[in-house]
Amino acid sequence: MGLETARRALEAQQTALQVTAHNIANANTPGYSRQVMAMLPTAPYTVPTLSRSVGAGQVGTGVSVSDISRVRDAFLDAQMRDVQNTIGDMEARRDALQEVEIIFNEPSESGLHSVMDAFWQSLQDLANNPESPSVRSAVQQAGENLASAFRTTYRQLTDLRDNIDSVIRARVSEINDIAKEIAQVNGEIANVTAVGDKPNDLLDKRDALLEKLSKYVDVTIQPEQNGAISVFVNGMAVASPFGYSAIQITNDPANHNYAALSWPTTPPTPAQLKSGELNGLLTVRDSLVDDYLGQLDNTAASLATSINAIQTTGYGLPGTTPPPPDFFTAQGGGPINAANVEVNPAMTLADIAAAANNGSPTPDNPGDGSNALKMAAVKSQPDAVYLGGFSPDDYFRALIGKVGLETGETTRMADGQGLLAKQIENQRDAFSGVSLDEEMVNMMRYQYAYQAAAKLISVTDDMLDTLINRLGR
């Protein structure tokens, strides 16, 4: 019996050393959970007698490995998934809004607001020198610069929206791949659990996949039999013991042929998201950038319409035929907006209606620039049709302020959630991470126990040798 006891001790300590080696090998592996081994004494050997029942005083038979489990806190994991979900949403919005800030480039000398101010100033100069060809040329050039700035800003915003749509398509593909992989790991975990083993490394792999998925979409987890789980996104199971469901992408003709997301049901069910990076991208694409484009359109339409209304009621230089043509027109026709506004190519310098009367200049009245003053006053003139009662200058300032506030808020929230994620990560590392110092101590403990068990075998061998070979000599 002594040899069997020692053998069991050797096997248990050897297994413990293997677990320790596995921990040390994965000390720097992301997502790895420290593993611990539990030992229990084996069933004792009872000496049978007629007068003694089984109880204290039984002879022990050694040790066995009862369990090898990972050290993991489910509460910290759930917290991390929630935080990652918020981080994904806020970072998607923050990154897009920071690009919007770069596009508007305010405040700067090359920003759209500075180009607008240059146009207003050129009209002020025209009011003071209505007959000057150079001043009229400056007005025309300032108008062209303004129209070009509107078109460029609009194009850059639409390009940003197109790029976000491409990222959305890529994220959906990643989400589907993760869901498929979770379903595969689910099956492996169920198979290992069914035979009574602990799939610790597979559980770590699945947790890492869940954390990655939670950054993209809001997930809910439901435990199933044999260690498998079902993963839901807003009520739809994307992964389960029975497989996975892929998010479908179709082109939406009502939304610039951008990606529309749906579940593979009959008929297809629109995929509604609550949070996560994918929700943040969809919000930026379909709401925030669209809103900025609409306000940019309103600014361009208001400015061009107001200038044209004043231009067509004034007079150009003597010799031009009234009424003068519109100052701004739409490229390709149609209503004027930020995407198509341009200076009327049919308008000559002499057609710029700086005057409010049709009289020729006289010594007492060298030039009438009152109409140019009216056009310059559009800057601060309220517009109830396009701007809700705001002036073009105030409306555009409010737009830039809104972009700045939304960028600052999403940046603050993303940074705050990032700090929280770091704190949770530190707590999880302290609980589940591998401490090399601790593993070295364990290694020495198991090593000494192994050596002692080996010594026990040697001693038992000597005892048996004495009993068998030397007794009676």
Characterize the structure shown:
The chain is an alpha+beta fold and 473 residues long. It folds into two domains: 2-71 and 433-470, no CATH class; 80-406, no CATH class. Helix content is 57%, strand content 11%. The protein contains nine helices and eleven strands. It has a four-stranded antiparallel β-sheet with strand order 3-4-5-6. Strands 7-8-9 form a three-stranded antiparallel β-sheet, with helices on one face. A two-stranded antiparallel sheet has the order 1-2. Helix 2 runs parallel beside helix 5 (200-216) and helix 6 (277-311) packs antiparallel against helix 7. The chain is rod-shaped and about 145 Å long. The model has no long low-confidence stretch (mean pLDDT 91).
- In spatial order, strands of the major sheet run 3-4-5-6
| Order of helix and strand elements from N to C terminus | HEEHHHHEEEEEEEHEEHHH
Radius of gyration: 39 Å
Q: Provide the β-strand percentage band.
A: 5-15%
Helix content: 55-70%
Q: Would you count the extended β strands for me?
A: 11
| Helix-and-strand structural type | alpha+beta
Global outline: rod-shaped
Number of helices: 9
Q: List the uncertain runs.
A: none
Number of discrete domains: 2
| Most strands sheet | 4 strands, antiparallel
C-alpha end-to-end distance: 26 Å
- Average pLDDT rating: 91
